[in-house]
Every structure is written in C-alpha cells, then in structure tokens.
Amino acid sequence: MVDTKANITFIKKQPTKPYYDSSAITGLVPKLYFKVEKRKVLIVNAREIKNNNFEASGYEICDFKSKFNKNNIHRNLEKYKEEINIFLKNKFNYLDSFIFDLTRRSNSKKGAKNKDGRRQPADRAHVDYTKKSGEKRAKDILGKEYFKKVINSNLRIIQLNLWKPLCKVVLSSPIAFALPSTVLKKDLVATNQVFPDRVGEIYHLAYNKNQKWLWVPDMKNYEVLLLKGWDSSTKKGMPSFTPHTSFDLKKQNINKNPRDSIEARIFLILKK
C-alpha cells in the first residue's frame, strides 16, 4: 500500500464568478483572479482498488506502449495520435473519435514545449470542462450539424483525457484525481478561462472532507490514466467529471527526477 498525505490546492468560493488568464496569455504560469487554499488530504493508491473501470468510476489505469518519449514526441505528434487511435479501438466500442488537443507538461523551470507556449503541471484541482463548455466544445470539434445528428440518434458523446508519462517513471509532481461519486455538485465551481481569442469555462474544485482522492504510484511510461471530462448522458449515477491536479511528493527531487507528460483530449461517440 502506497497511500500518502499531501497538500492539494482548492478554490475558495466567492460571490462572483471566478476567472483567470490562461498561460497562453501570461506565459507558463496562469494569473488567478480568485483565492485558493491548500488542504492536506489522504491520497489513496489507485492500484489497490480492484474492478474499477472507466465507465463506472470515471477513471482507469491501462497499459499503453509507445515509440515516443520526451526527446522525440514533439516532432511525432501525428504518429502519436495514430498510436492513440489503435488503443481506443481496442478499448472502446465507438463510432467515431476526435483527438483535438495534445498538451505536453514538465515541472522543469522552463516547462514543456507546445505550439502555443510552454506548460508546467496544473497545480489546482479542476475539471477541463463544465456541463456547458463540454457541450460547446463538442459542437466546435464535431460541427453543430453532426453533434445534433448524434444526440438525436440517442448516442452518447464522452470527453476523456488520456494522460501519459514521457519520463520512464513519475517520481515528482504526480497526478491525483478525485472519485466522481464523492464530489458534490456544489463542489464544482464554474470558472472562466481567458485565452487570447476566446473565453472558455472549466470547473475548479472546492474542498469537501468527503471527497476521496487517488493516485498511481510510480506510474511508468508504458501506462496511461484515463479521466472522464464530460459526458452527454444524463443517466443518474453516470460519472461525468473527474477532478484532477498535480501534487508534490515528500522529498521529491525535481532536478534529479523531473516529470514529463502528455495529455490527449478526445471526444468519442459511443455505440449503443
């Protein structure tokens, strides 16, 4: 058992809608226009939890072998997408897939290189989309007419984050995630994310003592973590949002063991 206690950064609720300038504007570190608080929480070893699966739990740990690492993936992003599609075909029963974003992150001082700037690990508990912005993003990516056709056919659209280490093993700034079943609606705080050309919306997470947090100790570069970001289903009990964040391990040494990772944001149209 490799459970740990660590600080996680949560948003503090406020009377007005919070917002922040994304790193696409500020460069590397976002500028926040709201207050946060750190809470020490128990983060349980997800490897010890049996019989979990993506549909029921909102997360899943899977094997995923890739030819690419931190040294060569930047010039092979399209080939990496091909690897993802092979994985998706073996994992999900779906009609169509849309890999619409790849973001590299590193906890080095300079962050990781991306087309729209350098990125470090996200250090606040959050969900990439809200109920409203997930639907809007799906319409943007699929096209409004195709989105409407899919929904009218009673098919589901899900958004998932496929998170993969690019270093051999994650020994600093690992990712923690909350079980969706332990997160209350009131814990999710819609927040405007300001980009140079648009305003998006994400959920930040407010602290609740009943939230259950998990992590994957010593995650290897042949593993991926799937996290649910949005779901068109309104079925009761169906997980839609899996909050996540990076956190610091005790005695971690970023210079000796830097974290390098890549996350793929994907829409899947599931078969009935």
Structural topology:
Layout: E1 4-11, E2 19-21, H1 23-26, E3 31-32, E4 36-45, H2 54-57, E5 59-63, H3 77-91, E6 94-106, E7 126-127, H4 131-142, H5 144-152, E8 156-165, E9 175-178, E10 188-194, E11 199-205, E12 213-215, E13 223-231, E14 244-246, E15 260-270
Parallel strand pairs: 2-10, 4-12
Antiparallel strand pairs: 1-4, 2-3, 5-13, 6-15, 7-11, 8-13, 8-15, 9-12, 9-14, 10-11
Helix pairs in contact: 4-5
Structural class: alpha+beta
Helix coverage percent: 10-25%
**Mean pLDDT across every amino acid position:** 96
H and E order: EEHEEHEHEEHHEEEEEEEE
Give the overall shape. Answer: globular
Quick one: how many beta strands?
Answer: 15
Largest sheet report: 5 strands, mixed
**Rg, Cα atoms, Å:** 18 Å
Question: Can you give a write-up of this model?
Answer:
This protein has one domain (4-270). It contains 5 helices and 15 strands. It has helices at 23-26, 54-57, 77-91, 131-142, 144-152; strands at residues 4-11, 19-21, 31-32, 36-45, 59-63, 94-106, 126-127, 156-165, 175-178, 188-194, 199-205, 213-215, 223-231, 244-246, 260-270. It is globular, with a radius of gyration of 18 Å. The mean pLDDT is 96.
Task: Give a quick precis of the structure.
The chain has 272 residues and is an alpha+beta fold. It is 16% helix and 36% strand.
